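FW: tagging you since you asked about this chain on Friday. Here's the raw sequence from the shared folder, copied in full. Didn't touch anything.
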Amino acid sequence: MSAVLLEAIIAGTISGVIVIAFFIAIDVNRRTARATANGTWARPVERTTALKQLEEFMRPVANRLPALAAGQLREKLSRAGDPGSLTPAGFQAVRYGLGALLAIVGLTVGLILQLPLPTVIVAPLSGAILAVVGYMAPSVWLEYRISSRKQQIQRSLAEATDLLTLVVESGMSLDEGLLSITERFHNALGDEIGKVLREIRLGRPRMEALENMADKGGVSDLHHLVESIVQSDQMGVPIARLLRVQATEMRRRQRQTAQERAAQASSRMVFPMVGCIFPVLWIVLLGPAIIQIGARHRAPSAISTSRCTRSASLPRSSRRIRGR
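HL: got it, structure written out here
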């Protein structure tokens, strides 16, 4: 009875939210229609995303984050590409909101499921487990996004350096070469260089913006490239020749890394072969032999059993004759 009541409450809540949203939409459409009929221009209402609304709702709780932790979280969000234009407070709001949502789901599942344990133990336990999962899931996703962006930058950096070298050797400036990279690469590397160009347009020195990109990127090849560009700018060395050397060196390192991975592939294949392929192979090879051996062992016992049954079924007269 409690489960049925709980389902009815959830269904009623969802229906109420849908009805309220429907009437709000009708009200907004009526206001727009009246303003258009009167000949007055109605300023469109700025739409706020669900993340921003959640951030405003959870601001009293999310703003309690310490300054050091907020700075580290801001740096991680920047490395992840500022997903959803989230601030540290907004990210904390997402963690709290998702944890609370999954806690409610866990409590509901604990009340509905019929387990041998009492409901008083199952419901809070499932709610606590899902709450911890919901609180930690955004952090895990953020780390995964940072690592994936690093891999994108590492894979595209050699080709981008070649493109930058060609543009600079053709007589164009470094800024035009960076702009050509943003037009050619629509990935993490293009996003980071686009940020550098925006910072330069806002008045930040070019070399300072590049160093900031290298520090936040966390890719060693990108850091070496930026250091070389800064040193060439300070010492007056032609940057085209330096970029050509850096591109060749990156290609060599990529080739060396590929060779190392190819050499390690054979050793990494040992454990899947031993754990997955060899057992199946042994079953295919030895299975028929084991079946035949089992059949041979069962055959004498079957023959002795049949003899016993035949002797038991003979009449007494035949037994007497055989006894005489």
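FW: The two ends are 82 Å apart (CA to CA).
HL: agreed, and Confidence is low (pLDDT under 50) at residues 36-48, 317-324.
FW: great, closing this out.
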